[in-house]
Write a structure and sequence with these properties.
single chain, 301 residues, mainly alpha, 12 helices, globular
Length: 301
């Protein structure tokens, strides 16, 4: 494939991210007087602090899931501490342009531990597949009536889409297992499957903690927990799938505003989306610092 065509998805993703950022900035300009008049800043800051702690726990669960995938695809004896340290130290790199440096950072860290390139690539691909599948499943929980009109058109196709995702997952993991090196294929099917299930459980808990952090941020609202979890999964999925949006910046905020605006009001949904972005960045920073601290202690041991 020509280099220009390979760059096209990233260029289009970057353009979409810039458009979303522009949309969020435009809405902020429009609603700034209402926001400054209605917002209770001390309460919001206190809620953001607690939400940061909760979301940080979710980030640590992602690191545990990465360890499980390394055991399933790279080395059944992969050690827990080095695996989670590699994942935690890569957290902030996802905000760099290109949206791939966090993958490269932890790949290099795992290679230093002696894990093979092909198996690490399989684990990284499995991580992306499982996260997308979990997000798609959770997105099915939102009642069609609570979706924007543009998404309601797709609601009738949600279950066929889920079946396609399930079939794709089975085919994908058969391919990943077939392309792994002899070291990883020595792991019997049952422990391999248990490792995948443990990773899925970590991802489910990550989204649950994400919903708890966001619910704490916005306070009491007339919205079912399952619906909130679903809408957050949709916004996360949009940010994850748009290539060229570092950390989903702009895309997730635009989706949150569009999804929650009819339910919370334009001003509150905008404040919630922006505050939650601050929360996620601070939480990623906290996870990164924990990873660095563990790395120093491990090196000094």
């Amino acid at each position: 494939m020509p280099l220009s065509l390979r760059r096209l998805p990233r260029l289009l993703g970057s353009l979409l991210a810039l458009l979303c950022i522009g949309f969020v900035a435009w809405r902020l300009w429009q609603l700034a007087p209402v926001i400054f008049q209605q917002s209770n800043w001390p309460t919001l800051l206190a809620r953001m602090s607690l939400s940061t702690i909760v979301y940080s726990l979710g980030g640590m669960l992602l690191a545990v899931a990465w360890w499980q995938l390394l055991r399933a695809f790279a080395d059944p004896g992969a050690r827990f501490v080095p695996a989670v340290i590699g994942h935690m130290r890569a957290q902030l790199a996802k905000y760099l342009p290109g949206n791939v440096f966090h993958l490269a950072t932890r790949h290099v860290h795992a290679r230093r531990a002696g894990l093979e390139h092909i198996n690490l690539a399989s684990a990284a691909l499995a991580e992306s597949l499982l996260l997308v599948v979990v997000a798609v499943i959770l997105s099915q929980m939102a009642p069609s009536a609570q979706l924007p009109a543009s998404l309601q058109l797709l609601a009738a196709w949600r279950w066929p889409l889920l079946v396609c995702v399930a079939v794709g997952l089975i085919v994908g993991f058969r391919f990943l297992r077939a392309r792994s090196s002899p070291l990883s294929t020595t792991l019997s099917f049952r422990p391999w499957l248990l490792g995948l299930c443990a990773a899925v459980l970590c991802y489910l808990l990550f989204f649950v903690l994400t919903a708890i952090a966001f619910a704490n941020l916005i306070g009491p609202v007339d919205l079912a927990p399952a619906a909130l979890l679903s809408l957050l999964a949709i916004s996360w999925l949009g940010g994850f799938l748009v290539v060229g949006a570092p950390g989903g910046v702009g895309v997730r905020e635009a989706l949150l505003i569009a999804l929650l605006g009819p339910l919370l009001g334009d001003a509150q949904s905008l404040v919630a989306a922006l505050a939650f972005r601050v929360v996620t960045v601070l939480a990623d920073l906290a996870v990164f610092l924990v990873g660095m601290s563990l790395s120093r202690r491990s090196a000094g041991a």
